[in-house]
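Hello,

Following up on my earlier ticket. Below are the two sequence lines again, exactly as submitted.
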Amino acid sequence: MPEAAGEGALPADSFAAFVERHSRFVYRVALAVARNPHDAEDVAQETFLQVCRGDRWAAIEDERGYLARVAWRLAVRRRRPRMLERELSLEMQLEMPSGEASPEQSAMDRQLEAWLHGRIDALPEKLRQPLALAALGELKLVEVAGVLGLPEGTVRRRIHTARQRLKRELMERKGGSHEQ
Amino acid sequence: MNNENDRLDGLIDRALASYTPQEARHGLEQRILASVASSSRPNPRGWYWKTAWATAVAAALVAAVAIPVVFKPSRPEIAAVHRPAAAGVERSFQTISAPASPTSHIRAFHARPSAAEPEAVEIAARPSPGLIEPLTIAPIHDKPLTNEPIELKPIAIASIEIAALN
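Thanks for your patience. The regenerated structure is below:
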């Protein structure tokens, strides 16, 4: 428990270390699902609140898996309607730092990425969530399966389907742009 | 074809990598710790609300019990009247077959017309042949049993004559 908790609380330094260790990861899991930075931060706070309230944080064996499950569950509840998400996704994309490419190329890349983010957001949740969680790069496939409560094979298949769908849409976009 | 496929995969990978931005706002850990600390601190107002709720529930229970008792609706007392049984009235257990279907006379009779509906009274009062006819039980005239002397006539036995066959 943090210092501000006062007497009778949990050991402050260890809980602070626990939060320090996992808060960014929890935030990213929440953001992958909720697609909104404010909601993701609220989810991160709520996740640690739940873990602390249950007084079980010290006994958790797989801390990352457990926190990811809690954060995912809370974030799913908060998920906003799709129209708003797409707008937010574009906003988030604009905040991304640009790379080393030329301004024109960078602008085109950002446009394409923003479009792809919109297509990812438009995927059905059962395809989008495993894809987004796997894309974090911090969870193994078996951990993603654990978070979603699905068999690993199902998660693998859904990620593959999601990628195939995105690829097809990219090809259609490319074909459409060539025609113009 | 493979090159195109790889290029598309690369595009998707890049989009996925930037799908979830890495960084949260500065000071995320502090905000989390602060929220946990504030929620774990005993809330003095919590006791106030608990007490208020308990009082309100208790008051509602008392009211639910007391109101029906205090504001009990006054009912008119009904005096018990004992009527002597009519002398000489005996029940007859004659079975009367019901009519096949209720007619307007019977409906009017059951509707118990009031004085405001004189025509209904008239209909109800009108004798209906075969339906509302008063039951008349014909008196049974039983003759008194009299012990008359039984006359026994003497049995006359005629003589049988058997004639010879030849």
